[in-house]
Each structure stands twice: as structure tokens, then as C-alpha cells.
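COURSE: Structural Biology Practicum
ASSIGNMENT: Worksheet 4, Part C
STUDENT ID: 0417
INSTRUCTIONS: Below are two proteins. For each, the amino acid sequence is given first, followed by its C-alpha cell string. Answer the questions at the end about the second protein only.

PROTEIN I
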Amino acid sequence: MEHPVIIIGAGPIGLAAAAHLIEHHQQVQVLEAGSDVGAAMRGWGHIRLFSTWKYNIDAACRRLLETPSAGYAGNWSAPRETRLPYGEEMVREYLEPLAQHPSLAPRIAYNHRVKAVSRITPAGAGVDKGRSAHREDSLFVVRCETPEGPRDLVARAVIDASGTWEQPNPVGRSGLEAIGEAEARAAGLITSPLPDPLGADLDRFASRRVLVLGAGHSAANTLLSLGRLKQRHPDTEILWGLRGDANPIRLYGGGDADQLPARGQLGSSLRRFVENGSIKLLERVAVTKVRGTSHLTVSLADGRELVVDLLVPATGFRPDLSMLAELRLDLDPSVEAPRELGPLIDPEFHSCGTVAAHGERVLAHPEPGFYIVGMKSYGRAPTFLMATGYEQVRSIAAALAGDRTAADRVDLQLPETGVCSTDLAGSCDAPAPEAAADSCCVPQPVTLGLSTGTLHGHTELRGDDRA
């Protein structure tokens, strides 16, 4: 029996990994925690990407969709390449047709949430983390939570493309949850990282007092939406909490002098809302405790207290490594990316466009046959670009198929851009700033990541040609 390569996550990177492996005639099984493809992306479907369709489609996925085969006409037509899609369009027009392809559909198992990954011998005996003998000859066992109960699946290799969407950073200081934070989230007083104040969440935000915590493009996305909301509902109050001091360059960029016009436009729009009093800027907001049932009292380290109706946590994401506890990982101690990748992506030194091309060798762990890819491979760094993820899985698929030459031939051309904020709620590679097609990264040749930025922002602001 030939055991498959198991891919965790049916998002763009996970499906791209499957497509590349299929091209190499490898057995593949995709496990998706959600009930449908692109579950995380659906959570921010109202947000528009900053990169055009031309850069949002993986090459192997395009070949799969456009090539006729037995039982498949191959008549998928790519959306107009100059158009900027919303998250929901990315799912509907690309991921759904891809997941329904006869080569992929039977290989995707939905409602399969991976709880743990470990190793076993070919005969089925246990191989825990401490056992070294013949480890490279062992298989993987992947334990899933399914509607029918727990299930163990066996694989010859595992690619973790599960992302970080379900693992937001806490609002508390020092990387810790504030006291009472879990209860406040459960009560709905702390929102999702990317709410929709002008659409689905309008009634929840209108005429409320809202604290947005964070200094990156995701925070700016929400703040600009709230600024527009306040224009319609003047009694809406908007507080912008920064964990440090307000640095105008960091907050607003160079305005008209910015080499990236869209970034300058984003900063200029945000600056106007602050300067006209629509948004109140608060510095050194180190949250120690939150409490409340109908309103939220936010206690700060310096003794201040803020009373708000809602808190938006635009504070970033981190990888969930708990399910990998029985594997031998080699991670950068600060970024929590693969050790060799960590120095290449550290946001203190690298922007979106200065990350070197990297593939299977850089992403490898001491655990043979196991890889973390996509947004999760960047750990806590916010500089991930979708084009990077596509190149990652192309290289890994080649390596797993035994084509070492193709695996080592990595090539990724990214534009050098400005320094990306370390307080982003996701990657730089996402929806664009207001009225432009860039964010902290320009749109050539990059694509989707987690949603940050505000090009046109939300569905009810659409005036574009969606044909």
C-alpha cells in the first residue's frame, strides 16, 4: 500500500501543494477543518485583495483547471487578470472550482480538524518524539477530529498549510492574554481581527465606542471603515490604541512623498481622521485586564482604564504548534519559523519584498518528510506573500517526488518595499489600502495573504466592474 502525502488545510497554499503533487503523480490527501474549501478566507470575504487575479493563481492549479481530462472539460476561464478580487470572489471563482475538479475532489476530507501528528513504524508500532532509531523509515500518523469521532490517518509525508487565522495574538501585554480576555471574547466584547463595520457588522458597531488595538495595516483597515461609519453615525466613538509611542512615519508613512503611493494614501487618509478628531489616538496601551458583560472595562499597566463597547484585536497572529508537539521541529526562537527561514523573514530587518527565494531545503525540519508552509511557515512574522507560498510548495512537491534538481531550483522575484509593521494582523500580502492597488507591498508579483489594508474595503463600497 502506498501511503499518501497528507496536506493540512484546503486554502490556496494547501490546494496548490496538492496540485503540484498530482502533477508529480503522487498520492495526496487534503484535510480541511472547515465544512468547505477556503474556510479561513470566507471569514474575511468582504475584504479586497491588493493584487490582481494575474498573481493570485498558482501555476499548477491553473494547468489543472484549464486542461481537459477524463470527465472534465477543462473549460474553466480565469477571471480577468487585471481585476482585484475580494476574498469571497477568490473562494467562489478559484478555490471552489479547484476543489471540485475530479482530480482533487475525492482527495479532500472536510470537517477533519487535525489534533496531533506523530510517527509510527510501517508495522504500526509507536514512534514517539524521543525515539531516533530508524525514524527516517517511519510513517506519520495524523489524528483528526471528525463528525464521526476521532480518526487516525497514515501518511508518508505531511505538509502543514493550516495557516494562522484561528490563532490571533492576545490583546494583553508581553504576548500573554489579559486577565479576563477569554471571557470577553466569549461574550463578544472582543471581536474578530477583521470585522465588517460597514456591512455585516454595521448594527454591532454603529453608535458604539470602539477600541482598535494595533499599529499595522489591519488596524488601519478597520479604523478607516470606522471613520466612514462615523460619518454616517456621528455618535460612533473610535479609539486607536498603540502599544508604544506614536511615530508619525510608522503610523502614516511618507504621505505624498512615499515611494509607494498607495501606502502614502492609506496613511494620509488615516492621518486626516486622527487630525479632524474622528479617531482619538492613545499611546502606550499595555492591557493588563479586561472585564465586563455589556461593556468592556480595559485596565492598562499605567493605571488608566478605558470603557468601551467593543475591542478590535488587530494585534497579529501566531502559529498553533500544539498539534506538532510529538514532532522534532527546528524553529527560530523569536519568529517561530523554520530555523533557516527565521533570519530571512525577521520583520525587524526585512520587508515583504526583501525575503530571499526559498524552498524545501530551508523549510526542512529534523523530522524527515514534514514541512510547514504558507502563512504558518512565517511564524509570527507578518511579511508572508502568497507567491512565496506557491514557490514553497512547488519545491517541496518536487523533493517528495524525488526530483532534487527541481526542488533546489527556487526562483521568486519580489519587489523591495518599505518596512512592514510587526504589529500587523496578518501578512503584508493582502487587501490594498484605500483607493489604490498596493499595501505595504506592491502588487507585482505577489498575491493573497491574510487580509490587511483597505482597497475599496468592503462589499457595500463596491463600484467596480465585477465582470
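PROTEIN II
(use this one for the questions)
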Amino acid sequence: MPVPVPRQRAVPAAECGPAQVSAVALTEEAPRDTAALGAALTVLLVHDDPSGALVPELRDSAGRPIRVRTARNLTEAGRLLTPDVHCILLDLALPAAGGADTEDGDELAVLRQVLELAPRHAVIALTASGDTERGAEAVRVGAQDYLFRDELDSRLLSRAIRYAVERKRSDTAERRLAEGRLRAQENRRLERGLLPTPLLEGAALRFAARYRPGRSRALLGGDFYDAVRTPDGTVHAMIGDVCGHGPDEAALGVELRIAWRALTLAGLCGDELLGTLQEVLEHERSDEEIFATLCTVDIASDGRRAGLCLAGHPAPLLIRPGATPVPRLLPFDNNGPALGLLPGARWPRTQVELGAEWSLMLYTDGLIEGRTSPGGPRLGQDGMLDMIHRQLSEGLRGEDLLRAAVSEVRHLNGDELTDDVAVVLLDRVA
């Protein structure tokens, strides 16, 4: 489906106001990877000796001097902790702000405050010679390494700083990867829950569906479908397509599907149903240029006839049994406009004779807009009819037929389809 060009939307004032710069804001930024760009490392020493004599002259692996800034307390550290700082050398003998270590008996209170102040920076704890237990506890709390204050030399400290920076970078990347995986799992669970479960108990019909979103690594796109059986025995089925195939379109498609099901179970049908769905779309869409196509069928309880409404959507395929079943398109002369295009639009309902045995295939235009070869013409409805005819002659039916159709369309296209694809098949066997 062609995607309309969205209007330029005004950015809310809260999103485009002047940035508020502060020491705290700076500490929340990730350290710049200046080492990878060829610049020297910068270290912030938090120690109560203003001379900085605790730290010998440092050089990185390329022999360049490592810059050292000195802060006598956490207040100064907050001012000096700019994004170009790669590592913090923290003397654990430094008192915590507000006397937290003496009040709570926490010997690592100053370390906890630094980790809260600079959660994305590497930290090396400096402790008294032989105080291995305290150093190990500092690493457990969150420091990347610990060193004995009285045994520092240039080579050891330079190596420890490089190790701490790389370990922090690795830990951060691993944490982000884990968070990304967790978000992806949650999204997949959510999207699975949003896919429909047809309500066809008691219907003498077989139902099959295939769904493939155009978005990479997604389970849900702008296409949507559903089927329900109402108490009078009528089976209602629909398939629709919101223009575009991003997450916003997927969300709108879910809203329209749920609204369709609720309205259908409430007794609405045909033009009245589509008119109400258009009102839902107009209230829920993010832009006035968003529209949706829709195809609905209501199959009588005897299964021999159906009502068809088209809102800018391709007509379904009807397949009747025979030695070589020949699919044909249902009438589409009364195709009304897509939902959301014309206020006050009407959608005529066409009566269709189905017969005693039949298969009805509803689909979105993602199935027919793929290419027949890389750079070649589009498959189109005629190409789809020929493809389905051939697959039927090979004995494919039901889920196998839909799986083969979607697979062949992707193969002909020469690559993954860019649009969402949804196909629904209803079969009635006498």
C-alpha cells in the first residue's frame, strides 16, 4: 500500500526547550571514547591531598601521558567529572559526604556515593596496603578494580586504568545487550498476545491464517484480521491494512480489530459497522492522512451465501471444488473508499452465492505488490490467481496452501517483502 507523506508535526515545547546543563547532568553522560579516537586517557583522582602526589606520572599503551585531575572531595569531583573523564581513582579513606560512613558504619559509603554520582565511569578503589578484604568488597560493590595506596607505581597503575576502562566498557555493552534482549522478549510476548484467536466454536468451517510483518524482527505489523461466530450462526470474517507498517500502524491495527470484534458481537454489520470503525480510526490515528483498507464478509448460517463489504481493499478469492479448482475474484464493483479518507462515506454490501463447498481467501495487498523477479513487474491479482491455481492443482490446501503462497511471493520478490502480509482462508466442506 502506498504510504502517505506525513505532515510535519510541531515539537512540544517540553521537547525543544533549552537544555539545563549541570554537574549532575554531565555525570550521567557516558564517557567519550577518546582513546579509540587516538586521544589520551583522562583520570579523576578523588583524594584529600591537593598536590596529587599519590599518583606517579602515567602513560598509556602508546606512551602518551594520561591526564590526571584531582578533587579533594565529592563536591569538587562533581564539578570535574566531565564526559572526557574515563576513570576515577577513589581513595577509600576519604570521608563520605554528610558523614554517611560514620553514621551507618559503612566503610564503603564514599564508594557507593561515587558510583551513584558516576554510574557510567570506571572506578578503581585505593585502599591501605594489605587490606585485601576491603578491596575485594569494593569490587563486589561496583568498582572495576582495587589497588594498595602505598604500592602504586607508574606501570601498575597505568595498566590498571586501561583494564578498568575496558572492563567498564565491556560491562556496559553486556548490560545493554541483556536489556535489549529482555525488551525484545517482552515485545514478542506482547505482540503474540495481540494476535487474534478466532471465535468460531460451532461453525462448520475450517480456519487458517498466515501473517508476516514487514518490519524487521517484529511479530506485528499494520495488517490485521479476525473471525467470529455470532449467536445466530453467522460467521463474520475480516481483514484490513493500515497504511504503513511501523509500530504506530501496528497499534492502530490492533485497535481496529478489537473494535470490529466488539461491534460485530454487538450486532453491527455492513455499512453501519464500517461507519463506526471509521469514527474509531479518526479518533485514534496520529495523523489525518492515516487511512485503512478493510474487507468484511458475513457468511450465513447455512454456509451457502455471504455479504461482502470492501473499503478500498482487494476482493477475496473464491475457490470451488472440482477436478482442477479455478480461483476467481469476488465482485468488487461496489468497492467503497478506504476508512479515514471521506467523511460520511458509504460502503455497499454485495450478496454473494458461495455454494455447498468452497474456500474463501482474504488477503492484504502485501501478497500482490511483491515483484515477480528482482526489478521486474509486480505480481498483481492476475499473477496471484495463476499462482494459487497452480498450487491447488498440486494438491495444496488449507494451511499448506497459505504457507506456499507467502513463501513463493517472497521467493519471486528476490528478497524479504517490505510490506506486511496477512492471508486468511475459510473452508466449507459439505
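ANSWER KEY EXCERPT:
Q1: The chain has eleven helices and 15 strands.
Q2: Confidence is low (pLDDT under 50) at residues 1-28.
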